[in-house]
């Protein structure tokens, strides 16, 4: 792919004429312009051809032939760019992928919320602590987490740090996924530090033994073991900061089309999905696979308009609806959307995000989620699709490979009183490794029963 920054600067910038929600207010716009110019000169983080490959995989999801596992941090942090943290996250996703592939017998498309998930939309512009009010933290790409006036000022230089942090992360992810670490024959090794201490680890170990036997059987039948050596893994994040995303939007020399080369897939969040606003306009210009978060207020008419705007050629794999309604609403609200979209003839991928509609504040003040609510939303999502004869295409979850205490419940139960022990998220509560594996086993069962 040849990079033509000049063309991209004009064609990927039509959003600038429209209102854009959740954008930082930079005090120094000259500095912002200089940063954008630098970013425009940087090399792509992913190739257009890889985005097309993911679109083909997502087409299989949309057609009911594969399942999407999309997961990772709520908010990546610059100081989280370490080999251990990246490996732990990847390991968790690989384990979940193995569980889903084997136990549900379905090809799993693996996409990380990783290598770019540095920006957060927020409910309120400010935060007050002990009578002091400051601008809210909007992710490491915008301002600092520390509660001081200096730290909370949006700094455009952080966009360059976001690029470099994404590049380092993606480099390591590519090394892990193609260099032997993700080899399916390592299925036990991913669990080594975990197996004795957790019920889900023990359950996983049993499944890993079965996978081992299956691999030996296939080997004996003549299947080349090298085929299991690498794993396909894609990156994704919310396309929130349009200055950053459009600076990384380039013309693909093969096709002349624009791609946002900051990630293979990007999604538009619940707070920025207004049809006549900048984010949808931006997404309509790029050719990556696109996700749209659909909250409980989404109407069927809106869903149809997203299809019209973002997938006018009705290309399976282009558009994924990531439904995040809440466990108490999904059974009421989702059927009409699925019915009308299906009746329109469009083939979109339907994916459940069982996290964002189920957040509450514990008495301790921690933002948390109950594992049972997460599970119930997934169940509701599967029930709706079963009743309508459509395909529950995947899950989108906030998780970490670390042993945090941010969501309550799970097989290795975290109680509300435990939340303070390892509450490390910079924004929303994530499933820890044990809860993530629990979820994968339960989703695999639901998929099999479907
Ligand atoms: O991750 C999603 C949003 O950024 C988050 O839910 C908003 O959180 P807030 O309500 O604390 O701003
Ligand atoms: C902000 C997010 O979700 P939503 O837009 O669905 O609230 C997110 O996934 O990080």
Hetero groups: erythose-4-phosphate, phosphoenolpyruvate
CATH class: Alpha Beta
Computed structural class: alpha/beta
> Please, how many domains?
1
Estimated share of beta-strand residues: 5-15%
Number of strands: 14
Overall mean pLDDT stands at: 94
Write down the secondary-structure element order: HHHEHEEEHHEHEEEHEHEHEEEHEH
Helix fraction, binned, reads 25-40%
How many H/I helical runs? 12
Largest β sheet strand count, sense and barrel closure: 8 strands, parallel
Weakly predicted, low-confidence segments: 1-9
Question: What is the CATH architecture term?
Answer: Alpha-Beta Barrel
Shape: globular
Distance between the termini: 42 Å
> For this structure, what is the CATH homologous superfamily?
Aldolase class I
Assign the CATH topology: TIM Barrel
Side by side, the strands of the main sheet go 11-10-9-8-5-2-1-14
Using only C-alpha atoms, the radius of gyration works out to: 21 Å
Indicate the multimeric state. Answer: single chain
Task: Explain what this protein looks like in three dimensions.
- By secondary structure, the chain is α/β, with parallel strands linked by helices.
- It has a single domain, classed as TIM Barrel (Alpha-Beta Barrel).
- Helix content is 39%, strand content 14%.
- The protein contains twelve helices and 14 strands.
- The strands form four sheets. Strands 11-10-9-8-5-2-1-14 form an eight-stranded parallel sheet, with helices on both faces. Strands 3-4 form a two-stranded antiparallel sheet.
- A hairpin with a 2-residue loop joins strand 3 and strand 4.
- Helix 4 packs parallel to helix 12 and helix 9 packs across helix 10.
- The protein is globular and about 65 Å long.
- The structure holds erythose-4-phosphate (E4P) and phosphoenolpyruvate (PEP).
- The site of phosphoenolpyruvate has 9 residues, from loops.
């Amino acid at each position: 792919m040849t990079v033509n920054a000049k063309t991209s600067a004009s064609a990927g910038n039509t959003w600038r004429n429209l209102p854009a929600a959740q954008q930082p207010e930079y005090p120094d716009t000259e500095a912002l312009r200089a940063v954008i110019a630098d970013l425009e000169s940087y090399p792509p983080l992913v190739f257009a051809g890889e985005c097309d490959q993911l679109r083909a995989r997502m087409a299989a999801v949309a057609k009911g032939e594969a399942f999407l596992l999309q997961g990772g941090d709520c908010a990546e942090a610059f100081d989280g760019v370490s080999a251990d943290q990246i490996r732990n996250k990847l390991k968790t996703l690989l384990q979940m992928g193995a569980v889903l592939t084997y136990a549900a017998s379905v090809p799993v498309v693996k996409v990380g919320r990783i290598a770019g998930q540095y920006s957060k939309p927020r409910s309120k512009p400010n935060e007050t602590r002990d009578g002091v009010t400051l601008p809210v933290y909007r992710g490491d790409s915008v301002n600092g987490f520390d509660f001081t006036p200096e730290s909370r000022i949006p700094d455009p230089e952080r966009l360059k740090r976001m690029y470099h942090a994404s590049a380092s992360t993606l480099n390591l992810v590519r090394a892990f996924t193609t260099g032997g670490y993700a080899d399916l024959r390592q299925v036990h090794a991913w669990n080594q530090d975990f197996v004795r201490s957790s019920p889900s680890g023990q359950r996983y170990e049993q499944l890993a033994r079965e996978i081992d036997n299956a691999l030996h059987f296939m080997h004996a039948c003549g299947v080349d073991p090298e085929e299991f050596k690498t794993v396909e893994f894609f990156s994704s994040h919310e396309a929130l900061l349009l200055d950053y995303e459009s600076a990384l939007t380039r013309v693909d020399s093969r096709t002349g089309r624009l791609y946002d080369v900051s990630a293979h897939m990007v999604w538009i969040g619940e707070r920025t999905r207004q049809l006549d606003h900048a984010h949808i306009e931006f997404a309509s210009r790029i050719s990556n696979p696109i996700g749209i978060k659909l909250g409980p207020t989404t109407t069927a008419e809106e869903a149809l308009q997203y299809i019209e705007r973002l997938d006018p050629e009705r290309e399976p794999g282009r558009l994924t609806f990531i439904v995040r309604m809440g466990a108490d609403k999904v059974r009421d609200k989702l059927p009409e959307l699925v019915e009308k979209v299906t009746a329109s003839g469009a083939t979109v991928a339907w994916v459940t995000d069982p996290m964002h509609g189920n957040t509450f504040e514990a008495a301790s003040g921690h933002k948390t989620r109950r594992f049972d609510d997460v599970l119930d939303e997934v169940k509701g999502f599967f029930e709706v699709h079963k009743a309508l004869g459509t395909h529950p295409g995947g899950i989108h979850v906030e998780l970490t490979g670390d042993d945090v205490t941010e969501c309550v419940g799970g097989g290795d139960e975290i109680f509300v009183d435990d939340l303070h022990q390892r509450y490390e998220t910079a924004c929303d509560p994530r499933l820890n490794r044990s809860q993530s594996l629990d979820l994968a086993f339960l989703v695999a069962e639901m998929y099999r029963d479907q």
